[in-house]
Amino acid sequence: MSRHAAPVRGPRPDITTSPTTPIRRSPPAAHREHWGVSGFGTQLWVLALRSIRTAFGHYRLIFLGILQPVVIMLLFSQAFAGVSELPGVASYGSYINYLLPATLVTIAVITAMSSGAALMFEITSGFVGRLRTMPISLFAVLLARSISDTLRLVVQLAAAMVVAVLVLDFRSTSWVASVAACALTAAVGWGMSWVFIAIATWRPSQEVMQAASFVVIFPLMFTTSAYMPVESMPGWMEAVATVNPLTYAIDAVRALTVGDPYGTDLAAALALLCCAALIGILTAAHGIRRTR
Amino acid sequence: MPTHAPVHVLGLGKTYGKVVALDGISFTIDEGSVLGVLGHNGAGKTSLIDILTTGARPTSGAATICGWDVVRFPHHVRRSIGVAGQFATVDEELTGRAQLVLLARLYGAGRRAARDRADELIDAFGLADAARRKVRTYSGGMRRKLDLAAGLVARPPVLFLDEPTTGLDPVSRNVLWEIVTDLAHQGTAVLLTTQYLDEADVLADTLIVLARGRVVAEGRPADLKRSLGNRTVAIRFPSLTASEYAAQCVASHGFRPVRDSGEPLLRIPVSGTGDIASLVRTLDGSGVDVGDLTVSEPTLDDVYLALHGAGDHPG
Prior knowledge:
Shape of chain B: globular
Low-confidence stretches of chain B: 309-315
CATH superfamily of the domain at 7-87 and 156-217 in chain B: P-loop containing nucleotide triphosphate hydrolases
Radius of gyration of chain A: 25 Å
Low-confidence stretches of chain A: 1-32
Distance between the termini of chain B: 44 Å
Oligomer: heterodimer
Mean pLDDT of chain B: 86
Number of helices of chain A: 11
Radius of gyration of chain B: 23 Å
Shape of chain A: globular
Number of strands of chain B: 14
Structural class of chain A: mainly alpha
CATH topology of the domain at 7-87 and 156-217 in chain B: Rossmann fold
Largest interface: A-B, 51 and 66 residues
Helix content of chain A: 55-70%
Strand content of chain B: 25-35%
CATH architecture of the domain at 7-87 and 156-217 in chain B: 3-Layer(aba) Sandwich
């Protein structure tokens, strides 16, 4: 298609205004070169990098992001100090050994929830609306979000670990075990982020999104061995706890950090997380492309 | 390669449940021309843009962009369009330049090409001073400019502008108008929705007026204005006596002045520029002091009033 011959248009005497900023009269559309389209990998990279820059681009965000796990841990270690007398806890040596894994997983779930909220904001603010009109994969947008938030989570987990060791006298069996525990927790965060991303893609209102997030979070966190041993719960709650993926994740993280056998818990946790992620991915991929 | 009209729309309809958003819209936009879509909120403008930019599916009819059907080949359509809107769809936390680089990369540009394109647009839009600031700190006018620049990153042959100047100050508005006029001169097909008749008048080659999802009028802006009427000259006089005398004078020259009760103000409908000149001559000849004279253009409301019933009362 020739772009040289622009159709002749009538004179436009109406435009006699002078803009304050000088405008160059030629470039924007003068010559159209074709870039083709970007690959999925490029899209993923560019979008993930953007989210990471946003997350780490502001010192307040970094500070609060790191403060959050520290506050949770300090609070719980003081408030629940008496719990360490309970029989289920005693076997872990000290309450911090019992608490740290739960704190790590709590941080993971909260970060996952913020993933959904961030995506939700990008949908309502119109940024995703622009991406929708572009020749790119919207799944790349979602995947980039989950990946960058998982990286953010890793930094938070590392900070929590450092504080636990330095301030709360947490002792893990080995460095490898601690790293493995963090990796598993990061996997929890990644899997759970898909649940919240999926909710966000169905474009609920801000209030509905918050309500839905809490409906997901509280039952998930409190029907686990996170803060109290499962054996000390009422019967029905104990039953729920035994089918909750987070229970296995927390138990596996605990087993890793104190050197207990962790095989079954780890396998169950990973299997259940994969299920959650898969359902989340399918729902989100459908939800984000949904046209009205 | 066969030549397709950049935008071709035939019998487009869209219903949401029982609500009819669009009802059999048809038009074509040629290379380098601007179609103005005029209508109040809820007239169907946004539904139309949503469908043409692949965000919504039509319930009837068809639309093609550069020959690609919007429903069957959305990906190809997305390669040919640029969108800028009423809501500045830009990322608050990025700098203006980073935003443009990001979009260029997503459109398939390499790192260097993306940076070059971003700088080119920043230059062309006079955003150089703000380019390295976060969008969060931008004024409304700067956001709109950046939003428009964002829509132009891939040099699209077709550009959709959804109420690009709603709520903008006059200076920014004029700047955007110039940019759009330039783009059209360079061959871009532009679809512009607006609530402002003067904006459509300045920018559009052809105009369609939407009401309740239907085209109630179409044509060149000048013809449309002529068909519906008239401009109004409002003249304020120093005193009621003067305005009364002036009213008699102009009435004797064939004008139909409308008196404003209690105020020394006359409103006189005129049809063309010649009328205004003869009105001024008449007043000058009568020797009346004129305090203040303004000419007001017909507004969108006048269009609707002139087309009374065409779309507002279906059936």
